[in-house]
Structure prediction request, 282 residues.
Amino acid sequence: MSVYLDGQFLPLAEAKVSVLDRGFVFGDGVYELVPVYSKKPFRLDEHLRRLQGSLDGIRLANPHGMAEWRDLILQLIALQAFADQSLYIQVTRGVAPRDHAFPKDVAPTVFMFAQPLVTATPEQKAAGVCAVTAVDNRWLRCNIKAISLLANILLRQQAIDVGCAETVMLRDGFLTEGAASNIFAVKNGVLLAPSPSNLMLTGITYDVVLELAAAHGIPTEVRAISEAEVRAADEVWMTSSTKEIMAIVALDGAAVGAGVPGPLARQMDGLYQTFKQQVMRA
Ligand code: PDD
Prediction:
């Protein structure tokens, strides 16, 4: 497997970073995850814009222009043996003696690699997953795609420990997002999505779902969603580049709706799969 590190494409085993890299020592960096279908990166410009937003959020100058990023990413994609990829991009504040203050004149570390993209099978989609809820105890800048994911990891593990797939987070009585996904709810045929804010990462999949809903006349409300609304919802979904649209069929041990993926989840997954074939792979 070829990876990219600081200007070079090289085998994974040869990609080495100093232990003083601020990504390793402080988690001082940001990342992106771009799904690649048939060797075509999906919404690369949007991902690169989100990366720029994350870099601005941590006051780190972007080491590459958009055209340069695009070129490097396309080269990395071409080097892989597999067509559907999950492409990870990480930029850290570089290598420097440990000191909280930003180092001066230090080049950021840029690392990228691609793994085979593994999405859910139709059987898994038909079964849905269970989730648990937890208080969102992260910081207040969740719109930054920071590599320091300790809170998300601990929150996700609460679900894993009880055999579930995701932790649905609630802050001050309102839905924020999943530990590594966005969360939608459905009530009486209306799709409910939390409004983008600093309290969540606005997923590229989240945007696609809202676009597909608008294009196909699915009534949608983008607004604050209370815990009570989540618990009384007919459907709850998690969405991400890798999970796509996955129905949550049980929450904290209680059935969501009928306890099986609901009609709108199945419709949206169908629309998403068609979109993938006709637009993402085209
Ligand atoms: N994470 N919210 C959080 C906290 C996430 O980590 C993710 C995705 C999303 C959904 O974003 P998108 O639709 O662009 O994938 C929302 C990726 C998959 C990850 O960290 O592996």
Q: What stands out?
A: The mean pLDDT is 97. The first strand starts at residue 2 and ends at 5.
